[in-house]
């Protein structure tokens, strides 16, 4: 069993101040000063506001939605981005996901579903977006794009030119800015901010390195941020826990003297299980499999391994409790978006059943040592599907609130 240094640091950031330990107490004057400096920089940038659409190109008239958070990571942005994209695709819209990409040596790269492209150029999360949209798309009369560029404004200009070149309906085109709340140089019509009621109630209300946030310093600033964005997306819970989750949201908002309302959207989720097909050096999502099928295969394994390089692997571990509580297993929790190392290769080689997220798989599958390690072994790939509820726990149409 192994947990990376980065994961341990993240868990310390999430802890209440009273539980951070002696080492934090010793360094607290310096850490609070650094946190204050980070928050001042973030506040100044936010006060300047986002660039307006008419200031870059008065002819760009597609809808731009931003999905992000003020946490360091791990609130479940990817499933929200994918779900919104899939809903609009099924309605016959052209859909683009614009992201900077995450990882080493990210290159500017634009990918359209109607054109053969080198998918190895995509970052892990962008490759996940592409595969989910490709697998789930039911219509061929509309296109989807993955736009990877640190400067999302350039992605918008590329999209505008490409759609006009192909004579597609630009009025039925939506752009989803993935993790763009802190990217002020790109315009948008609506900002969706993902929040965790658990962290709001338990973690310190400060930016790093005191708390797990990118913005905010103290209760007053967090009250402003909670009310600042168009919608608060609360991530995330399962159906059987809806009422408990709603109570935690209410308790979170009451702490800041905010009343819940139409701005509050609850994210229900379920875990999806996939099989992967590898052929001619290409990888495809093959099919979904049920919990019963997963359980049956897992019970035949002798040395299972849970391998993760995501921000909150303990939530992932909890989602798999129906499986993992039945027998002994090993786990390795790497840093978010981390590469593999010699220790991990050794564990992979000794395992006969490997469980990982879809994002993790696409981060590592081009690594020859990883590929050789998983070859001819049972691999379980997991992703998340979601639905949106209002504060009264009623299913809502996301297109209605985004219109």
Automatic annotation (TrEMBL):
<keyword id="KW-0547">Nucleotide-binding</keyword>
<dbReference type="GO" id="GO:0005886">
    <property type="term" value="C:plasma membrane"/>
</dbReference>
<dbReference type="GO" id="GO:0009245">
    <property type="term" value="P:lipid A biosynthetic process"/>
</dbReference>
<keyword id="KW-0443">Lipid metabolism</keyword>
<keyword id="KW-0444">Lipid biosynthesis</keyword>
<dbReference type="GO" id="GO:0009244">
    <property type="term" value="P:lipopolysaccharide core region biosynthetic process"/>
</dbReference>
<comment type="function">
    <text>Transfers the gamma-phosphate of ATP to the 4'-position of a tetraacyldisaccharide 1-phosphate intermediate (termed DS-1-P) to form tetraacyldisaccharide 1,4'-bis-phosphate (lipid IVA).</text>
</comment>
<dbReference type="Pfam" id="PF02606">
    <property type="entry name" value="LpxK"/>
</dbReference>
<keyword id="KW-0067">ATP-binding</keyword>
<keyword id="KW-0808">Transferase</keyword>
<dbReference type="InterPro" id="IPR003758">
    <property type="entry name" value="LpxK"/>
</dbReference>
<comment type="pathway">
    <text>Glycolipid biosynthesis; lipid IV(A) biosynthesis; lipid IV(A) from (3R)-3-hydroxytetradecanoyl-[acyl-carrier-protein] and UDP-N-acetyl-alpha-D-glucosamine: step 6/6.</text>
</comment>
<keyword id="KW-0441">Lipid A biosynthesis</keyword>
<keyword id="KW-0812">Transmembrane</keyword>
<keyword id="KW-0418">Kinase</keyword>
<dbReference type="GO" id="GO:0009029">
    <property type="term" value="F:lipid-A 4'-kinase activity"/>
</dbReference>
<keyword id="KW-0472">Membrane</keyword>
<feature type="transmembrane region" description="Helical">
    <location>
        <begin position="21"/>
        <end position="42"/>
    </location>
</feature>
<keyword id="KW-1133">Transmembrane helix</keyword>
<protein>
    <recommendedName>
        <fullName>Tetraacyldisaccharide 4'-kinase</fullName>
        <ecNumber>2.7.1.130</ecNumber>
    </recommendedName>
</protein>
<dbReference type="GO" id="GO:0005524">
    <property type="term" value="F:ATP binding"/>
</dbReference>
